[in-house]
Amino acid sequence: MKKTILVLAIFALSFLGTIAHAQQIDVAFGLSTIMSAAGKTTGGLFFPSIRGGAYPEFSADFLLKHRLGLEGDISWRVSQNNYGGFQPYRPIFYDFNAMWAPRLAKPITAEILAGVGAESLRFYTGNIACNFVTGCTNYSSSNHFMGDFGGGIRAYFWRDAFIRPEVRLYLIHNNVEFSSNYAARYGISLGYSFGGR
Q1: Distance between CA 125 and CA 117 in Å, rounded?
Q2: DSSP string of 81-138, one letter each residue
Q3: pLDDT for the residue 161
Q4: Residue range 47-65: average pLDDT?
Q5: CA angle at residue 182 from 104 to 31, to 5 degrees?
Q6: How much is the pLDDT for 4?
Q7: How many structural domains compose the chain?
Q8: CA pair distance 188, 57, nearest whole angstrom
Q9: How far apart (Å, rounded) are the C-alpha atoms in residues 88 and 80?
């Protein structure tokens, strides 16, 4: 989790200059779940599905000219799941996207986005390992590059506060721990827009 927070902090700092000229900044927090293919057995080995569970999500975007902008988000499974019935694990998804947010009506804005990110699988071992770079952890990580595509409908319900149903498709490279190289996240977020909308 420390590395993920560091990556998000670097992302935020790298766009401070952009923020100063942004026409609109939006932040949101939500809850979602993951859908994916069912588990399967290949070569006598069972590969489980990554689906299910509750995933809190935090996102922020900066809209520039012509309703185009940049977006970043992170979502993680609230509770650990058991891999193969015995190994506790938790998936974390984070990504950075280009976004287009056309206004459909005065209180309604669409969001269409695509970008890249990573799936970080945390397998909890019960043993604490320490080193100079990462500090002390009780898990080992398996990280996979991914592309993501998605969108949502932002409905403003009070001043600049909005509710947003959303969907994301994650295309996960070399996701060998699970039955599929894709996952879809469905959810809903509450957010707020700063600046003109």
Answers
A1: 25
A2: EEETTTEEEEEEEEEEEEEE--EEETTEEEEEEEEEEEEEEEEEEEEEEEETTTEEEE
A3: 94
A4: 88
A5: 55
A6: 61
A7: 1
A8: 9
A9: 6
